[in-house]
Amino acid sequence: MGTGPFAVPSFDALRSGGHEIAIVVTKPEPPVKSRKGPPPAPTRSWAEQHSLPIFDPLSINDPQAIEQLKSYAADLMVVCDYGQILKPAALESTRLGGINLHGSLLPAYRGAAPVQRALLSGDAETGVSVIHMTPRLDGGPILGTRTTAISDQETSGQLEERLSHLGVELVLQCIEQLTTWDGRSALGNAQDADQVTKAPRLSKREAEIDWNQPSKHIDCLVRGMQPWPIAYSMLKIRDNKPALRLAILKVSQSREDVSDLQPGQIAGQSDLIVATADGALKIETLRPAGKRDMSGEEFLRGYQLPKATSFQTPDPTRSS
Length: 320
Hints:
By secondary structure, the protein is of the alpha+beta class. The protein folds into 2 domains: 5-195, Rossmann fold (3-Layer(aba) Sandwich); 205-303, Formyl transferase, C-terminal domain (Methionyl-tRNA Fmet Formyltransferase, Chain A, domain 2), CATH 3.10.25.10. The protein is 24% helix and 18% strand. The protein has 8 helices and 12 strands. Strands 7, 8, 9, 10, 11 and 12 form a 6-stranded antiparallel sheet that branches.
């Protein structure tokens, strides 16, 4: 069971490793809103590429869907990046229940955005966990983990891809554990309830940069919001024109002396240096709304900012 790209490396290892895949369960395709239609989800594309059967119920917990699952007489569900929460009846549709590959070191970051939340929090390391599934979201006993350091250059997208490959061997080892399980004895290690943290889905509102924050916080925001929803900031260049929305794609630490500037104020006319709460950041790459990606230097040459121009402070009442 999977939908997004995080599932594909482990699923492909199962396919090529001699396991019989009874069915690939994925979320249904969204309604077509244009002639081209939406791009196929990664798990669906992978299944079609290898001519594997697909089951895509609107709700996996619907009684008819559960009867369909039972009809496959599968031993185990392998769930990763699926997008639906399985209730007890669905979990009981296979002999050994289900295992789930999760992109964090559980019990940290239970929820839909574990990779992004670890990066946004400035964590030095993260990893993957495999649990034996229970009805509680990401709350089952842990069968195994793998840990890795987070690079100070990685975006969420890059880190997620790396973690998806880190989990492959772990998934295979945990399945091997289950081949000798009697279905009754204790399995894995219970999660410490006192250490639980949540990883809710990202929102566009969270992506607006507050330059009153420390430089490290802003750097983590820029990297953590890629590939979606992308960190941004609003820049008012001319009084008679609306503020320009700039997607901020890469920043770096700057040693520029900005002690006489307020957070959000732009320093210099060659490099795009912005004052923060505790120093300054250089905007390396950005994208003006409707334009291509460009360097900070290119942006300054093209837009010729007035002196003392500042990025706007986020407005909590403005929708993104």
